[in-house]
Amino acid sequence: MVEQLQRYGIFNSKKVAEAMEKVDRGLFVPAGTPAYVDSPMAIGYNVTISAPHMHAMCLQLLEKNLQPGMHALDIGSGTGYLTACFALMVGPEGRAVGVEHIPELVTSSIKNIEKSEAASLLKQGSLSINAGDGRQGWPEFAAYDAIHVGAAAREIPQPLIDQLKPGGRMVIPVGNVFQDLKVVDKNLDGSLSIRNETSVRYVPLTSRDAQLRGT
Ligand code: SAH
């Protein structure tokens, strides 16, 4: 699957390929779900695990900010797949922090990671998955070199901007029905440079109640 994504020109980074090959997607999708098909898959609670080409694209956009020792935040960590990739890339000296507002997904993502190549990082503490409202970020390990948001926001939450390090990059889908994947770079003087990478379709970044109601 990873080879195919590279052949189709989705990404060309060796480090991204390495991380995606190490983290077996089969451990992160519900039993009976075809794991290696390039499509989002339902994981319950009205949400999906993102398609592999979106994971690959986001990893590549963030690659320079996922160097060993750096801090990475994954909002809406869902299955934990991408957080595990972050953890492998930033390594034991770095920090990979997932925030997810469905407690059951927090529990199942931790179980998924425990079976994966990233298990030792979870045990050792450089990788953690936390229950909470991701719109508030996770101040404990701020500032972050890389922030990924896996659900579409109406606008970029201010706490996430505040928790981005100067020189850091955030990748976040913004919009309602029509969404843009935005790449937000915080310059060293604290100003922001924002560009649209591509049009996307993500589930909303919302409250737990609204998500479970499906509104
Ligand atoms: N990137 C993950 C999940 C993508 S789906 C993966 O590929 O597995 C988006 C996730 O965001 C869902 O798990 C959903 O429960 C979560 N989410 C939505 N709004 C949230 C919020 N306000 N705070 C934390 N998590 C949120």
TrEMBL record:
NCBIfam families: pimt. Pfam families: PCMT. The keyword S-adenosyl-L-methionine applies. The lineage of its organism: Eukaryota, Viridiplantae, Streptophyta, Embryophyta, Tracheophyta. Belongs to the methyltransferase superfamily. L-isoaspartyl/D-aspartyl protein methyltransferase family. It catalyses: [protein]-L-isoaspartate + S-adenosyl-L-methionine = [protein]-L-isoaspartate alpha-methyl ester + S-adenosyl-L-homocysteine. SUPFAM superfamilies: S-adenosyl-L-methionine-dependent methyltransferases (SSF53335). GO terms for biological process: methylation; protein repair. One of its GO terms (molecular function) is protein-L-isoaspartate (D-aspartate) O-methyltransferase activity. Its EC number is 2.1.1.77. This is protein-L-isoaspartate(D-aspartate) O-methyltransferase. It comes from Eucalyptus globulus.
